[in-house]
Amino acid sequence: MRLSRRLRQERTETELSGSQFSTLGWISTEGPLTIGRLAELERVTAPSMNRTVNCLVDAGYATRTASPDDGRKVIVSATEAGETIVLETRRRRDAWLAKRFAALTPAERETLAEATTILRRLTDQ
Amino acid sequence: MRLSRRLRQERTETELSGSQFSTLGWISTEGPLTIGRLAELERVTAPSMNRTVNCLVDAGYATRTASPDDGRKVIVSATEAGETIVLETRRRRDAWLAKRFAALTPAERETLAEATTILRRLTDQ
DNA sequence: TGTAACAAATTAGCCTTGCTAAAGATTCCA
DNA sequence: TGGAATCTTTAGCAAGGCTAATTTGTTACA
Questions:
Q1: Over chain A, what is the mean pLDDT?
Q2: What is the rounded distance in angstroms from the CA atom of residue B116 to the CA atom of residue A115?
Q3: pLDDT band at B97 (very low <50, low <70, confident <90, very high)
Q4: Set of chain B residues whose Cβ sits within 8 Å of the Cβ of A125
Q5: Is pLDDT at B13 greater than 70 in this prediction?
Q6: Where are the domains of chain A?
Q7: Cβ of A114 and B118 within 8 Å?
Q8: Fold entry, domain B2-124
Q9: What residues does the HTH marR-type domain cover (chains A, B) (predicted)?
Q10: In Å, what is the separation between the CA of B99 and the C1' of C14?
């Protein structure tokens, strides 16, 4: 929690919020996903995800399309601007972390990588 | 972020929120602290911390006292009820994590412990 | 085939907890 | 002693969780 507050301090005004960026990241790397699936991935309720997607659509970073096979579902895709901002933001955020990471030993970086894997397994249970 | 959302799902209704519990934890283990110091420890602004402390005081888990050496400062201390709930909540939360941790190897647990140390250093810079 | 149950998204409204700006207190120092 | 600095507090805003209820579409079965 404290690390994410610290990272938030590094965010510029024009950037997307944590949830928005994380959600856009999913559809950027996994391809188009439904609201329900995104909610599941972000461990958030469907209404919460719906609002996040609204923000992304309003900002021009994502689009909603009806699912061809099931009219209840909505497919969320990243626009070109969305893909672009994911890459740019990642690059900019990495800059902050990269400075810190540069001060770590390779062994320490490896420890963080392993911890990430373990934590992901814990949350996915 | 996703892990903390997952952990939030394990919280019962009567329990304190994440920020409240974390703040109470500081004064429980570090002893009485000022609002400003708590804000710094939690990486939050003073007004935000002030509100968190209000909640704790209203709930009977903490008390405000004027600093004897500097009238501007306010010392926040844990009440007996506060100390008690920190211990109880920790025990209950640990139960959830403990089940998951039991499934880890000693080496994996060690990796998480090391990662914590490294991350703490990163946030404190 | 018509209808009832179910499923997915959405809307509405609440709460917590960040924030900034500004207002009190109190202290420090020239 | 008066003004700047420091610490807390108040007020008000925004993001982003949540639940409950509504809408729309699908599926199952009598």
A1: 88
A2: 9
A3: confident
A4: 100
A5: no
A6: 2-124
A7: no
A8: Arc Repressor Mutant, subunit A (1.10.10)
A9: 1-124
A10: 34
